[in-house]
## 1
Amino acid sequence: MKAFQALFVLLLTAAGADGQSFHLGKCPQPSVQEDFNITKYMGTWYEIEKLPAVFEKGKCNQATYSLLTDGTVGVRNAELLSNGKINSIEGVAKVKNSSQPAILGVSFFKGVPDAPYWVLSTDYQSYALVYSCSDYLSLFHFDFAWILARTRVLSEEVVSQLHDKLAAAGVNINRLTVSNQTGCDIMT
Ligand SMILES: *[C@@H]1O[C@H](CO)[C@@H](O)[C@H](O)[C@H]1NC(C)=O
Ligand SMILES: *[C@@H]1O[C@H](CO)[C@@H](O)[C@H](O)[C@H]1NC(C)=O
Ligand SMILES: *[C@@H]1O[C@H](CO)[C@@H](O)[C@H](O)[C@H]1NC(C)=O
């Protein structure tokens, strides 16, 4: 519990300093991808844009998902740091309620509550829009969002459609930042 509180204070401080991911009120409840097929979602996704995520400092950010035998999903997030080293972290994602397959929880640290991972929209082959929002005391919330693609570039047209979807969900798209996906040859 202490660790969780510390993390919470850290998030609050970071979000406060950033002034961007912290909002009053409860999380919005956007609609998610219909008939989500997790098998088709597996594999590598590259981060095209994100809502500021303070824990990501590098570039060439990517996530690789793999279906595990117990039905959960292995997650490996990797990024290239400015010193040329690859930083990676592994976690597990799972569908919490099989009647809502596009709503997952992701955990990178034992004992820390899952972070929500909602797949709002994907065609599996080119793009995905992911949203994560956590309520605290029903008074305020933090949110994160990621536009992901199967390649390190995504057409402006698709990005623009995903912006519209996020905006419709009540997310302030002015807060999105473009991820640097150039000079990533060292990443596999
Ligand atoms: C999900 O996708 C996999 C791989 O394409 C396919 O074999 C499976 O039938 C799909 N599941 C459903 C329920 O459509
Ligand atoms: C799973 O989702 C369905 C549909 O939204 C809901 O009726 C049901 O109560 C949920 N089950 C659990 C265990 O939360
Ligand atoms: C992205 O990274 C490349 C290679 O490290 C660098 O040259 C470029 O300036 C960066 N682009 C931005 C927008 O930061």
## 2
Amino acid sequence: MLSAILDQLKPYRAKLVAVSKRRTIPEIRAIYDQGQRDFAENRVQDLLERREALPADIRWHLIGHLQSNKVKYIADFIHLIHAVDSLGLLQEIDKRAQAAGRVIDCLLQFKIAEEDTKYGIPDLAAAEAMLGSAEFSRLSHVRVCGVMGMATFTDDEDRVRAEFRKLAGIFKALKSAFFKDNDRFSELSMGMSGDYGIALEEGSTLVRIGTLLFEGAD
Ligand SMILES: *Cc1c(COP(=O)(O)O)cnc(C)c1O
């Protein structure tokens, strides 16, 4: 399944983040042995346990909600934090990154689904307020590399497409307002097992796939 997915991503030059939550170590290891190096968990505790049990050259992504008090456990190794949704969290990541002697890459998570989800920045205006603030300008150990979002879980493809398009629009608006000359602001993390085809068509650069990768037929 891995190579079939990678073949689908190639024309879009998108990258695969293998979502390993709820998988066993041998299952993850099998995907690793096929060459995959980017893996994601949605809980800090699981991330720490898996990291311990698996090869050191894995790039670990956190895709779930992150509580400020847990940043310290991942600051010295995390590759990309996908779900940053507040200035307070960014400030904590900055502080812990500085202590670890690193700059940590982050994505801003937006609420794009119609359904009521707890987490995510509500809209472009809220992100503009955050990125335009004096507090944000003082942060030197976080690098905002793009945006992330999850579409509504539905068979309605038009709706999913509209939500991804909305996120792509937010990405473009932030890029031109705040990151014009910053090549690092380049990631549009959208698309999961059920909707990554649509996400790719709408400009995704990073798809987060679990179920299809681990359960799909070869
Ligand atoms: C679980 C999860 C995924 C992967 O979902 P699948 O449907 O298993 O591919 C992607 N993104 C986030 C944020 C997740 O929690």
